[in-house]
Amino acid sequence: MNDFERDGYIIFRDVIDPDLINEVHGHVEWLRQRHPDVRPEQLGHIYLRDDPFWLRLVSDERLLRIAELFVGPDIALFASHYISKPPYSGQPVLWHQDAAFWPLEPMDVVTLWLAVDHSTPENGCVRLIPGSHTWDIADKRANTDVESVLGEEIAVDVDEDQAVNMVLAPGDVEVHHSAIVHGSEANTSPHRRCGLTIRYIPTSTKITAEEQPYPSAFHLRGDPGVNVYQPWPAFDPDRHYAP
């Protein structure tokens, strides 16, 4: 935890077993077939809010034990998002701070990035600027010069020579602070790079978005706290992924 306080990130290896990762591979492919007009980098919570498998995954006790180290025992899900970069054409994620985008008060939240595929510099792994979680939250600006996942970037210069690559194997989990400056390159390799971002909050953190309950707000553990949550969906074989 001292490393996280100093650097703003930490990696946990071999968190999720290969059998469950294989089920996740099937889930991503099922989502792609279900939403053929959506870029695979954009399989976010609006496509997952009524998805029992996804909820089983994000509430896996192995992930919640890690989340508890950062947000305490009373845990809710704020948002989650598959970013699946296809071979040769996967879009980059421009430099940004997550906290610049999120309707949370206070900004007490942690991201767990679950590697579904091997994640390497060649296929566009996450890159972080160590220690940048201590910076102020900067403005963001649109960037239309390159097609990217967010379409926006941090409105300050970033010294990319300071960046560290998050090289991960399937089942590894990288954890980062909401204020750390991070991004990733395009995937021009022949190998897909898929990860699931999971944003956990303590139930004392208020989701302040106008839409209530927030599409991906689910109570996962402990006291429900200050938010209104989505009901957990019942499995329907005609509508849901069945591993």
TrEMBL record:
Taxonomy, superkingdom: Bacteria
Keyword Translocase attached: no
Pfam family, one: PhyH
SUPFAM superfamilies: Clavaminate synthase-like (SSF51197)
Organism the protein comes from: Phytoactinopolyspora halophila
InterPro entries linked: Phytyl_CoA_dOase-like (IPR008775)
Protein name according to UniProt: Phytanoyl-CoA dioxygenase family protein
UniProt GO molecular function: 2-oxoglutarate-dependent dioxygenase activity; iron ion binding
Coiled coil stretches, renumbered: none
Transmembrane segments: none
Keywords: Dioxygenase, Oxidoreductase
